[in-house]
Amino acid sequence: MGLFSKKPKNEAEKPAGKGDKKALSESDFVYDMSAKADGVVIKGIKKKVSHIVIPELIEGYPVVEIESIGFAKDRFLPDNYETFSCLKTITMPDTIEILGKEVFSQGRYWDDALGREEYMSAKITSIKLPGNLRIIGPRCFNGCQDLKSVVWNDKLTHICTNAFSGTGLTEVVLPESLIAIYLCVFLGCSNLTTVKMPAKDICYTTVDTDDFGFNYRSFYALSNANDSFRFCDKLTMASKKAIRDTGYTDDF
After folding, report:
1. What is the CB-side half-sphere exposure of residue 88 using CA atoms within 13 A?
2. pLDDT tens per residue, range 76-112
3. Domain 11-244, CATH 3.80.10.10 — does that match?
4. Which residue ranges make up each domain of the chain?
């Protein structure tokens, strides 16, 4: 039948409304010490909520990374897709330096009525990136079609493969701190019209890998191409010029 059957929702499973913003406590999070032992990594959330506030400290240690907001790291477990179907807002502390692979990306589930696998992504419409964020992992926001705007921070250095592909972004303002854009980052952002770039060359990788151990491969990139702005059909001429001036040589 597929990965698993979609369960009918009942009243007890309904996510809380705006009042749940302050309801999460340390015990609601799955977490561990980071690999560098410099803080806490969020690995999951134990309850379905529409609005999430990530704490700055857990057990007295700063939260430095979000690995997952699902109920488990395995994104194909039953109920995991419901994280994405109900999540509408998330507030993150400035202590976070890494957003991991597929944090807000499409979750997969089996729909009995349709008889096929379906995909569910977070329903967030806007997001403010943490002040100390350096790395956005592969497919982090992939497929978040409701995501229209991002408030960018000024310490971001690397955006990994497919991080924002297929989102509803209309404008992107990338910071001067940016060093590298991996494959297909904004691929298929069909509503994207305005892009403001750093006044310097950017490293547009053409190798489907990253330096952070995410081990994700893109299914979309052409051979020897970066394609981060491919199929962004509404880009203005000024935006295309700004992108070209940073070293991008592939198609739009």
Report:
1. 11
2. 444 545 555 677 899 999 999 999 988 888 655 556 6
3. yes
4. 11-244
